[in-house]
Amino acid sequence: MGEEIILGEIVKPHGIKGAVKVKSHAESPEIFLESSQLTLRHQDGTRRDITVNRGGGMGNRLILKLDGIDTREDAEALIGFSIVINSDDLPETEQDEYYWHDLIDMEVLDSRGRQYGYIKRILPTGSNDVYIAIDDTGRETLIPATHDAVLDVSIAQKRMIIDPTALSDDTNAN
To answer: Which residue in 15, 93, 133, 163 has the most C-beta neighbors within 10 A?
Structure first.
């Protein structure tokens, strides 16, 4: 059984017919609409399986209509719930695509074995993501998520091999 991944959080109701506004952590709203196994989870331990009827939005703000949530009061009762999915239920990724949760805490090495630390954050940018690896001294290395910089990724070994010549001069200076 995989780990639970938080896709978003219900922040407030939308309208009077039970729609909810969601702060999304997903790259696109399709994951909410295409997944059949979503669960609402509250920090008090309350859990509820849900089905999303329809939804949309842009960026990290979505509006979703859930089965069985038909009034504003029903929607207000869901404020603070997280929408989660089991990682085993996530759609397969394309070749050279990875879920962020698979990359976080991944060890980063170059082809000569120099260690750059572990990926702690990922910054989405307009053209490509940037992985932020932090070593034992707290030094950050910014790694562009490009084929030039990332030579190999092993999810099973939780290891990424990079080409240090593709990093910025500031990163290579130390």
So the answer is: 133
For the chain, residues with pLDDT lower than 50 are 172-174
Separation CA 174–CA 165 (nearest Å): 13
Name the strands in the sheet holding 130-134, side by side, starting at the edge strand that comes first in the sequence.
Answer: 140-144, 130-134, 115-123, 107-110, 159-162, 150-154
Under 8 Å between Cβ of 148 and 164: no
C-alpha 11/C-alpha 40 separation (Å) is 13
AA identity, residue 120? K
pTM for the model = 0.72
Using an 8 Å Cβ cutoff, are 53 and 65 in contact?
yes
Write the DSSP symbol of residue 81: P
Closest among 63, 40, 59, 62 to 51, alpha carbons compared: 40
Residue 11 and residue 23 in contact, taking contact as beta carbons nearer than 8 Å: yes
Note whether 75 and 69 are within 8 A (CB). Answer: yes
Where does 1-146 have alpha helices with state H?
30-34, 72-76, 100-103
pLDDT for the residue 107? 98
Strands 61-66 and 19-24: antiparallel
- Residue 174: predicted pLDDT: 47
Q: Residue 84: name the closest of 141, 146, 21, 2 by CA.
A: 2
Of 79, 75, 76, 101, residue with least CA distance to 90: 101
